[in-house]
UniProtKB/TrEMBL annotation:
Belongs to the flavoredoxin family. InterPro entries: Flavin_Rdtase-like_dom, Flavoredoxin, Split_barrel_FMN-bd. One of its GO terms (molecular function) is oxidoreductase activity, acting on the CH-NH group of donors, NAD or NADP as acceptor. This is FMN-binding protein. Residues 9-164 form the Flavin reductase like domain.
């Protein structure tokens, strides 16, 4: 029997992403965000939802661009740090020992040390409630060659992304391989 837990943001998994932006003085900033995901295939788009109170919110509104840097498990502590302090007061890149890299396609920095990066141009802004959803068209994806599979695509077991448990506020790595999508169901 299932127990009702009420209306909550409780679904697994949610990503741990670092959203990269420049402020009005071109200072690079990163913010940890978990409210995000893929939202369209054509054009390729991802969304992030942020509170207006965040420094990153103002930066995105100003520049209409952001990056998503996907940390590997080895950087879980640095990803967490970027969500604890504000970029208004702290140079998060320097404090975390991370390196900002200027994006090739959008006006936003990404994290050099992280294995997977998406460069996004804002195409829609949706006021939802406490959060504002920024839909970004993916202008480019960059991946470290070491995390690519034989087809030249990122391998999740090599990227080793961090995932977040909302409401319980925990970080986790990925689990074991279960099978090929759109194939294992044929055997059911």
């Amino acid at each position: 029997m299932k127990k009702s837990l009420g209306a909550k943001t409780l679904v697994f998994p949610t990503p741990v992403w670092l959203v990269g932006t420049y402020d009005k003085n071109s200072k690079p900033n990163i913010m940890t965000a978990a409210w995000g995901g893929i939202c369209c295939s054509k054009p390729p788009c991802v969304s992030v939802s942020l509170r207006k109170a965040t420094y990153t919110y103002g930066n995105i509104m100003e520049r209409r661009a952001y990056t998503i840097s996907v940390p590997s498990e080895a950087y879980a502590d640095k990803a967490d740090y970027a969500g604890i302090v504000s970029g208004k007061d702290t140079d998060k890149f320097a404090a975390a020992g991370l390196t900002p890299v200027e994006s090739e396609f959008v006006e936003a920095p990404y994290v050099k040390e992280f294995p997977l990066v998406l460069e996004c141009k804002v195409i829609h802004v949706n006021e939802i409630g406490l959060h504002t959803q920024f839909i970004g068209e993916v202008m480019d994806v960059k991946a470290e060659e070491a995390v690519l599979n034989e087809k030249g695509l990122p391998d999740i077991s090599k990227v080793r992304p961090v995932i977040f448990g909302p409401e319980i506020r925990t970080y986790h790595g990925i689990g074991k391989y279960l099978g090929q999508a759109f194939d294992i169901g044929r055997k059911a």
